[in-house]
Design a protein that fits this description.
Helix content is 29%, strand content 14%. It is α+β, with helices and mostly antiparallel strands. Among the domains are: 72-138 and 197-204, no CATH class; 152-188, no CATH class.
Length: 208
């Protein structure tokens, strides 16, 4: 009877021991305790603000400032030689100062005729201002004709008017005479200037 009692006590003891959890083994099975787990490092947000303001790209054409001239003497000094003022000249089409200067070159300077500005043209040659007026039927817009042969129009005029002593071909540097209805070349009355125009009908206009 006593042996049975001892056996029951041993069995009860074994059952009690198996039912108690081993906290030490559980902690070791987890590897590390909560206090030993590594704390994640906080990563600071990257500052993407540019340290300097970028320089805008500007085209060469946009950076270039167009140069214009309102003074004809400044314009001619810049362009040197040109037959007709171009878009770089921004002043009056027929500057009053040129009209005044041209009128002073005439044989009888005085009050400027009302019609004079409408008959005039101006250009640049070798950096200087030159002007001409077609008021006397002069070919301001034509280059000098240096040919030593008469034009067909002059020949026809001579046939129709055989007694003309002198027949002028508008742009010719020579005078022409009719002799028995035949055109003959006379003396040279002018020459071509550096730009090819009739030198004697274009006048340099000085800056006032």
């Amino acid at each position: 009877m006593r042996a049975m009692h001892i056996t029951l006590l041993l069995l009860l003891c074994l059952l009690t021991a198996c039912g108690t959890p081993d906290t030490t083994d559980q902690a070791s099975g987890a590897g590390l305790t909560a206090t030993e787990l590594p704390v994640p490092t906080q990563v600071e947000a990257q500052d993407l603000t540019p340290t300097a303001t970028p320089t805008p790209v500007t085209s060469q054409a946009a950076a270039t400032v167009a140069i214009g001239y309102t003074d004809p003497w400044d314009y001619c000094a810049a362009v040197k030689t040109i037959d007709v003022p171009d878009e770089r000249y921004l002043g009056e089409s027929m500057p009053h100062a040129i009209v005044v200067g041209f009128n002073e070159t005439s044989e009888a300077p005085g009050e400027i005729p009302e019609w004079l500005p409408r008959t005039m043209s101006w250009r640049c040659m070798q950096g200087k201002v030159y002007a001409c007026s077609v008021g006397a039927n002069l070919p301001c817009d034509e280059k000098a004709n240096t040919s030593q042969e008469p034009s067909e129009a002059a020949k026809e005029a001579c046939k129709q008017n055989p007694d003309f002593l002198t027949v002028k071909q508008k742009s010719s540097i020579y005078s022409w005479n009719c002799v028995n209805g035949t055109m003959q070349r006379g003396p040279q009355w002018t020459e071509a200037d550096a730009a090819g125009f009739l030198a004697d009908i274009w006048y340099e206009i000085k800056r006032p």
